[in-house]
Specification:
Length: 296
């Protein structure tokens, strides 16, 4: 494991000032101030741990988007894909930077990264199949859920610097989710060949495994009924985080309301059965059950 560093240890280089421009929020500013004396050590430690984990996740997104961008070049995708990915890569640089700064501000140690875990081998039979599966997983599912979670974190945040940090991330993640659905829909159109249809079938068959991966990553194994019955977030001071149940709830609702219908619409009707296979509750069953009102 290697600790993530925000800056090169060589004084003020031009690369640092260029990085600073990318790392600044796309709108507004974050006031990087925290009066640590107004919080208990336990509150600061919990906040540092949450943002530390977030920094590692954002760095993984950065590595994945960068790799995917190169693979799209190999497929000679239209140039607007390159432009959109350049923006998203910059966004993930920003998110990693923000999460590292929040960790520092709360007194935490830098996030560690396992370089071996960043190596993402081509798993499909062809690069095209791999890219399609990665976009479906990382964007249509991952970024869609991420946008939902960060919108909930924004509502929960009470500490001003944390609210500013989450707001900067939310703006980007919401865009990433939208773009992911455009990319997913375009990739699912395919080229009409039998090989492309076979690749689609393989991907459809992988959906239960992909859904289960995200369910476990979101700590949602205990199911939606459990998650919905718990408190979504701790009250003040809140550093832009949810409870475990809050993240789980965002997963189940995001899957049911956005991901599954979206995948069905772009040509993966198998998504409904895959959702049921991992414990997902169908819309009709949800409508019949009394539950707390929730937003995104
Ligand atoms: Fe991100
Ligand atoms: Fe993202």
């Amino acid at each position: 494991m290697i600790p993530l560093r925000r800056a090169t240890d060589a004084g003020a280089l031009e690369l640092a000032s260029e990085h600073g421009k990318i790392a600044a929020p796309r709108r507004g500013t974050i006031t990087w101030k925290l009066d640590a004396a107004t919080f208990t050590p336990a509150q600061l430690a919990a906040a540092a741990a949450a943002w530390r984990a977030r920094a590692a996740q954002e760095y993984h997104s950065l590595a994945l988007f960068t790799q995917l961008s190169g693979q799209l070049h190999q497929l000679v995708s239209p140039l607007d894909w390159a432009g959109a990915f350049a923006r998203m890569i910059a966004d993930e640089v920003r998110h990693t930077d923000i999460a590292l700064r929040m960790t520092e501000l709360c007194g935490g140690t830098p996030a560690d990264v396992d370089p071996a875990a960043l190596h993402l081998p081509v798993t499909g039979k062809t690069l095209r199949a791999h890219v399609r599966a990665t976009v479906i997983a990382a964007f249509c599912i991952g970024e869609t859920l991420s946008g939902r979670m960060f919108r909930r974190c924004l509502r929960a945040a009470t500490v001003p610097v944390a609210k500013g940090a989450v707001r900067a991330i939310v703006d980007d993640e919401t865009f990433h989710g939208r773009l992911g659905w455009e990319l997913g829909a375009l990739l699912m159109r395919g080229d009409g060949s039998a090989a492309c249809r076979r690749e689609r079938d393989v991907l459809a068959g992988q959906l239960p495994e992909i859904f289960a991966h995200y369910r476990d990553m979101c700590g949602a194994r205990r199911g939606e009924a459990w998650a919905t019955a718990q408190r979504e977030a701790d009250g003040a001071p809140n550093f832009g985080t949810l409870t475990d149940a809050g993240y789980a709830c965002a997963f189940w609702q995001g899957m049911r309301e956005d991901v599954v219908p979206g995948l069905v619409a772009i040509g993966l009707p198998e998504a409904s059965a895959a959702f049921a296979a991992i414990g997902g509750v169908t819309p009709s069953r949800v409508a019949a059950a009394p539950r707390r009102a929730r937003g995104s």
